Amino acid sequence: MPIVLGEPGVDGLREAVGVLREWQYEGAPMQLHPGDLGWFWRSGAEATAAAVRTWSRDGQILAVGLLDGPGLLRMTIAPGAWRDAELAQQIVDDVTDPERGVLPEGKVNIEAPTDALVQELLSKKGWKTDEPWTPLRRDLTEPVEDPGVRIEVVGPEQAHLFAAVLRAAFEGSTFTDERWHAMAAGSPYTDARSLLAYDDQGNAVAAVTVWSAGPGRPGLLEPMGVHGEHRCRGYGKAISVAAAATLRELGSSSAVVCTPNSNLGAVATYRSAGFQQRPEVRDRYRDA
């Protein structure tokens, strides 16, 4: 049967999220997670559907991609199909031809599992490796220590506080409470929680959203940020510890996160919270 490139539409997003959940397992390299779609959902279901691509054979989804920006495709492949030659060639053909509606002309990036055949085929076509990223993982077999600060699970009443912390944590962020509500309305948020950390004066100082992929599977932190006026006081460590504890309560086997190697502060923060570095990963890119 031929490989079919498709766009799931709003009605098909639940299936795409479902297969991404099934594809998460301990020992897998850093890959697209249902939480990545969940975080993108802050722009609404229609925008998320427009950004998702699937590759299927005989009605079975074998690969899922998320256009996480105009020139970035983040994708992963079903565990049993990483070396499927027909699938890999079809994906490469689709992403390198702008007329197929995946990536435009010019400089573009693809994030794919390190050992997938897609990586080798792109390399043969002259695609280069981009800047390194550091995945980090914390095992959740044992109970997680107390974070040492007050932690609150965000509901609709706290959405404006969560949004304010993210805007103060990330330069140029346009996150609003309306975006939190859109994110929380998405199907991935069924297995997610947003958290706020508070200082001794009751100020919200750090925020994180965690995404479970189901019991016994790795859960994701995306995003995590500390208010710019409250950095270097241990709040990043505290909210990361709280994130790990919440994922354990949700049944996750581990907590994972990925940050650029160049963000030394973030790497140090996660390590202080009990996360261990894993082998670095790199996107593939095509020059303009």
Condensed summary:
With 288 residues, the protein is of the alpha+beta class. 32% of the residues lie in helices and 29% in strands. Helix 1 (9-23) packs across helix 3 (45-51), helix 4 (85-96) crosses helix 5 (117-124) and helix 6 (159-169) crosses helix 7.
- Spans of at least 5 consecutive residues whose pLDDT stays below 50 are none
End-to-end Cα distance: 34 Å
Biggest sheet record: 13 strands, mixed
Overall morphology:
globular
Number of strands: 13
Helix content: 25-40%
Q: Give the mean pLDDT.
A: 97
Give the SSE order as H and E letters: EHHHEEEHEHEEHHEEEHEHEE
Classify the beta-strand content into a percent band: 25-35%
Query: What's the number of helices?
Result: 9
Radius of gyration: 19 Å
Which structural class should the secondary elements be placed in?
alpha+beta
Describe this structure in words.
- With 288 residues, the protein is α+β, with helices and mostly antiparallel strands.
- Helices cover 32% and strands 29% of the residues.
- The chain has helices at 9-23, 34-40, 45-51, 85-96, 117-124, 159-169, 177-184, 235-249, 264-272, and strands spanning 3-6, 52-57, 60-67, 72-77, 108-111, 128-139, 150-153, 192-198, 204-211, 218-226, 254-260, 276-277, 281-286.
- Strands 1, 2, 3, 4, 5, 6, 7, 8, 9, 10, 11, 12 and 13 form a 13-stranded mixed β-sheet that branches.
- Strand 2 and strand 3 form a beta hairpin.
- Helix 1 (9-23) crosses helix 3 (45-51), helix 4 crosses helix 5 (117-124) and helix 6 crosses helix 7.
- The two termini are 34 Å apart.
- The relative contact order is 0.18.
- The mean pLDDT is 97.
